[in-house]
Amino acid sequence: MSAVDKQLEQIRDEIEQEVPPDIHVSDVKYEGPEVVVYTQHPKEFAQDGDLVRRLASKLRKRITVRPDPNVLTPPEEAEAAIQNVIPDDAGVTDLDFHADTGEVVIEAEKPGMVIGRHGSTLREITQEVGWTPEVVRTPPIESATVSNVRNFLKQEREERRDILERVGRQIHREEMADEQWVRISTLGCCREVGRAAFILSTAETRILIDCGDKPGAEGEVPYLQVPEALGAGATNIDAVVLTHAHLDHSALIPLLFKYGYDGPIYCTEPTRDLMGLLQLDYLDVATKEGRTPPYQSEMVREAIKHTIPLEYGDVTDIAPDVKLTLHNAGHILGSAVSHFHIGDGLYNVAFSGDIHYDDTRLFNGAVNDFPRVETLVLESTYGGRNDYQTDQEDSERKLIDVINRTTDEGGKVLIPAFAVGRSQEIMLVLEKAMRNGEIEEMPVHLDGMIWEATAIHTTYPEYLRDDLQNRIFHDDENPFLAEEFNHIDGGEDERQEVADGGPCIILSTSGMVTGGPIMSWLRHVGTDPESRLVFVGYQAQGTLGRRIQNGWDEIPINDRGNHGRAETLQLEMDVETVDGFSGHADRQGLENFVRTMNPRPEKVLCVHGDERSVQDLSSALYHEYNMRTFAPKNLETFRFK
Amino acid sequence: MSAVDKQLEQIRDEIEQEVPPDIHVSDVKYEGPEVVVYTQHPKEFAQDGDLVRRLASKLRKRITVRPDPNVLTPPEEAEAAIQNVIPDDAGVTDLDFHADTGEVVIEAEKPGMVIGRHGSTLREITQEVGWTPEVVRTPPIESATVSNVRNFLKQEREERRDILERVGRQIHREEMADEQWVRISTLGCCREVGRAAFILSTAETRILIDCGDKPGAEGEVPYLQVPEALGAGATNIDAVVLTHAHLDHSALIPLLFKYGYDGPIYCTEPTRDLMGLLQLDYLDVATKEGRTPPYQSEMVREAIKHTIPLEYGDVTDIAPDVKLTLHNAGHILGSAVSHFHIGDGLYNVAFSGDIHYDDTRLFNGAVNDFPRVETLVLESTYGGRNDYQTDQEDSERKLIDVINRTTDEGGKVLIPAFAVGRSQEIMLVLEKAMRNGEIEEMPVHLDGMIWEATAIHTTYPEYLRDDLQNRIFHDDENPFLAEEFNHIDGGEDERQEVADGGPCIILSTSGMVTGGPIMSWLRHVGTDPESRLVFVGYQAQGTLGRRIQNGWDEIPINDRGNHGRAETLQLEMDVETVDGFSGHADRQGLENFVRTMNPRPEKVLCVHGDERSVQDLSSALYHEYNMRTFAPKNLETFRFK
Ligand SMILES: [Zn+2]
Ligand SMILES: [Zn+2]
Ligand SMILES: [Zn+2]
Ligand SMILES: [Zn+2]
Ligand SMILES: [Zn+2]
Fold first, then answer.
1. CA neighbor of A450 nearest in space, from A277, A241, A309, A566
2. Between the CA of residue A565 and those of A149, A288, A517, what are the distances in Å?
3. What part of A 168-187 touches B (C-beta under 8 Å)?
4. Residues in A touching B634 (Cβ below 8 Å)
5. What is the CATH number of domain A180-386+584-639?
6. Kindly report the CA angle at B509 between B506 and B514, in degrees rounded to 5?
7. Helix intervals (H) in A23-181
8. Of A356, A308, A341, A404, residue with least CA distance to A31
9. Buried residues in B372-397 as b, exposed as e (16+ CB within 10 A)
10. Band (B595; pLDDT cuts 50, 70, 90)
């Protein structure tokens, strides 16, 4: 009997000691980080509301109980019974029975009402029908991404169960190493922004954190081929942890599967969905620009299939000697500060990913409170000594003012924006301003991936700022559903109509005017001197957005209908910039994050910033807080224990 | 045609352009780092004394010319002709003809006379008989190690040629990497002494420098299993470079072959022989102490078979992007500061290995003059702020004095000493003192591996200090052949005789009184209050030597004849310590090495010293010379380019 099977036997013994004698445990299995308990008495199991919690705390593992297939109420009967238990207001839109595992997936508009207080409604369901309910939210705005991911996972259920069982046995394998050490190797995003990738390794385990590309620098991918990464074989990586879906962190994750990786990806559920959306778009853009994409869409599906979603705060075994906990990072939907607890109290490392320290309209500020943490790997995008941003209130006032000045003159406001995060932030500002009468009610047109990204945001309100959640949950006034928001889904015709119409606001990708529908909008309204182009996000060196900011007004518009010949557009509209809407903490925010961090880390690695930013921040943290700080280069390895 | 074969074609073309039209080149091959040119006109080739040098400088490669087998004078005839060319005084002791390669190995007491001025006699030989002569020295003291190694290599000639051809093609392979970087990974001997092992890596190449054990700390071997070392497979290592034969640098090299390594080991010729001697002794000791040796003697032979000996100063291609040059390190016979020139002027790293900065009686001081060097990896054994040693002259005076005091009273002087290096140093001091009448002429008995190690020293006088070489070469007064030196080869009987005899000096291993014949000598003379035990080398914590130094006089003597029961000896002899004979630079020497280094390196990694030593030295070099200094931990990786 293998060590893992022995361990499962032991767990089964311990469970049997804890459950009442009338409950029969028929099997115990690992499924990813969870222990799944199969029982012929699911109803009895569900009667003791505290039993699962007691087991979890005794075994220090996550526990799921599932019915033995032969004790299940038939689906037709069960469906009626379930509908009976769940209040009508919950808005159940789908019930999906999986006889193989005894799970029933309930899609509802109000998942909270399906769950009930402390899970009481769920338990009631099991007591009635034996099935184990799992609840997902019906997206309030239809999201192709969410429904594609859900359908795909449904279809791949069996393979996914195999994957999860394999991963589970891998996580709970016997520890082989007789040494103890903790190291971080840097594979990218050191003294640069882009291609985030780190290896966290112990004598037992290797974990890859992020695997992004470097936008605008083709070919500069993370150093995946070195021996400490994939050089010794992709199967030597135990786990991949993704802090958030931005492409500079996620773009090359599917490539790992092409290289033979077959293990889990840990991230939040919204990160999984946004990752899929952005990666497919990444392939699309590559193809459109005539580049060979580094992988095919098949590999994006592999990535999704291998994702094990975690919620903020869940402490999860991801290797025999590593526990992972994700915490809100305040940067984009589902973004996570990733905390690793290594060994039995041996060492703790937190990777900030990208963070926003202060609350924004969209998100709570980043969590910086941990049970323990000795080393922090900290993003430094705005770590430079002068990288201070306008505060949010001033920024909002300025945005409202520029909108009013424009629409008063009968013009239109065109805002290039990133689909994920910044667009939703601006939408919230606009919605509030119209509600309060600070700007007139007028159409806000959303073009490019913005609508889809917004739909994903509304699917996971738990990841939004507290009071925004409350509005969505309790007051039934989801701001994203405001009638002013219009999805541009009618192509050029619709754009022409908008251009011919009255005052309005247009939010369109790409955020740095490097392609996408914004180019079309420039053709439609760029020559209108009454209208205004308003930048609300960082415009990188070399982008058209930056050039326009700098005063260029001869804009090359590549019109593919015109045999690819360059056409030049004379920009007549006004150009303004409103800063302060960044998803990144500014220099002050980064310092505050560290200063108020609990506990204060001993060492900080400053990464994800250009040379000057990481050096400035590293030196400031050293001098102000007396920590050991580093500004690593790519391809280095630091040992901590 | 492979890229390597194409390159060989090209080289052949270039050679044919350079040689006179009457010389026909029949083949060009790689053999290790050398280009071997086969010709049907070896005699004509040898006529132009400058031709090979011109080819080497044109091709920037090491060139060897060999005759086509079918143009060779038959060995019987050739032997007579060769004997005729070489002066009788050369003392030829063996001629060995290898028809497969047209080489004739000439063993002679005076190799210089076989070579002739600028190689003139060698060329004369080839002109006479066509064969390519190779000269080795007849050991003036018979050395089992040297003759075993030479016989073994003769016997394995064919396989060795295969290895060399494979290595040669590997060295001259086409460069595949499109990136450029230079890194050092630390696998051992950081913040500790022992288990020296580093990986020097580029995008193209991985080189292992040293692979030693940690004496007294069983199980603390270098971190070979990490991916940047052998974790990705032993065959991913391009080359092993051995700085010197001490076991803390060489002990685990044979293990690499057990792990599947099949590439070259670069070191000096004496290092190869001493390595063999010490490794076999290492296996012996392990077996005697009841430990399982990590490899068998078969693997020591593999290591010797894969060794490519280099001379000091030879610039050698060891990878497509790495050139290695070994320089005298002044530490032990054949010890080398290893200089790596990477890329086409990309970067230069020097590994000091163990060094002695000042001249000693035995060796010239370490070389610290390089064409370029940006990073120095520096041993720090005596890097602590108070690690200053008595200077050599005072030490010698003190040693002479203690000997005279002892022998005047009719006692014997017992000196525990390391077989390699320190023993020969003391031998030279004693020989000179007797020659000068500073001490009486009396027998100096050499026990343990000292005699054998001395024999190896006399085989390679080119590696000894200039004036010592001169004495051996020109004045025919080899101090190691002094009649006072007696090899204890008669076991206990001879020791008893010596003990019963008059005043004398006994040099015996082990140097730290941890086993070996010194234990027997303690039984024989330890109870004699007229005699003296004199320590001339460092006694590590935990060794019996250290305890005796500290005043212990109840010595446990494990007598295996006595059923393994511990016997206690009451030490009656006087105990004295004479320091200053270390093979390591002291703190001043280390600073001098760096201060006078040309060019001054930008960065220094302080290794091979305990925590305090590396920190002290690192901090001193930083403050005094304003270099970037580091005291790495094991398992870290530093990037330099
Ligand atoms: Zn981001
Ligand atoms: Zn980022
Ligand atoms: Zn060190
Ligand atoms: Zn040494
Ligand atoms: Zn050493």
1. A277
2. 39, 16, 18
3. 181, 183, 185
4. 639
5. 3.60.15.10
6. 125
7. 42-47, 51-59, 75-85, 111-115, 120-129, 144-155, 157-171
8. A308
9. ebbbbbbbbbbbbeebebbebeebbe
10. very high
**How many Å apart are CA B496 and CA B492, to the nearest integer?**
6
Backbone angles phi, psi at A566, to 5 degrees: -75, 135
> Which of A619-628, A630-639, B211-220, B526-535 is least confident?
B211-220
Q: What's the CA-to-centroid distance between B492 and ligand 5, angstroms?
A: 33
Peptide bond into B510 cis (omega under 30): yes
Residue B8, number of CB atoms within 10 A of its CB: 20
- B634 vs A636: CB contact, 8 Å cut-off? no
Rounded to a whole number of angstroms, the distance between the first and last alpha carbons of chain A is: 34
Query: Domain coordinates of chain A in residue numbers?
Result: 3-158, 180-386+584-639, 394-577
Superfamily in which the A3-158 domain is placed by CATH: K homology (KH) domain (3.30.300.20)
Where does B203-346 show beta strands of DSSP type E?
206-209, 239-241, 265-267, 307-309, 316-319, 322-328, 336-342
Using DSSP, state whether B509 is helix, strand or coil. coil
* Predicted pLDDT at B472: 79
Q: What is the pLDDT of residues A328-348, one digit of tens each?
A: 999 999 999 999 999 989 999
> Does domain A394-577 sit in CATH 3.30.1360.120?
no
Q: Residue A239 is inside which H or E element, if any? A: strand A239-241
Residue B564 pLDDT > 60, yes or no?
no
Q: What percent of chain A has pLDDT over 70?
A: 98
The answer to whether B536 touches B424, Cβ cutoff 8 Å, is no
One-letter amino acid at A311 equals: E
> By C-alpha distance, which of A376, A348, A171 is closest to A266?
A171
Look up residue A230 and give its DSSP letter.
I
User: How far separated are the first and last CA of chain B, in Å rounded?
Assistant: 34
B601 C-alpha vs ligand 1 centroid, how far in Å? Answer: 40
Structure tokens at B215: 């004496």
B190: Cβ contacts below 8 Å, ≥ 6 apart: B607, B614, B631, B632, B633, B634, B636
Please state, in angstroms and rounded to a whole number, the distance separating the CA atoms of residues B155 and B157.
6
Q: Is the dihedral of CA B383, B341, B205, B308 positive or negative?
A: negative
Cβ–Cβ under 8 Å, residues B328 and B337: yes
> In chain A, what residues touch B227 (CB-CB under 8 Å)?
206, 227-228, 231-232, 236
- Local confidence band at A1 (pLDDT 50, 70, 90 cut-offs): confident
Q: Which listed ligand is nearest to B537 at the C-alpha?
A: 4
CATH number of B1-70, picked from 3.30.300.230, 3.40.710.10, 1.10.10.570, 3.90.950.10: 3.30.300.230
H/E stretch holding A38: strand A34-39
A368 is written with which tokens?
């910086």
C-alpha distance from A395 to closest chain B C-alpha (Å): 42
From A446, A525, A529, select the one nearest A484 (Cα to Cα): A446
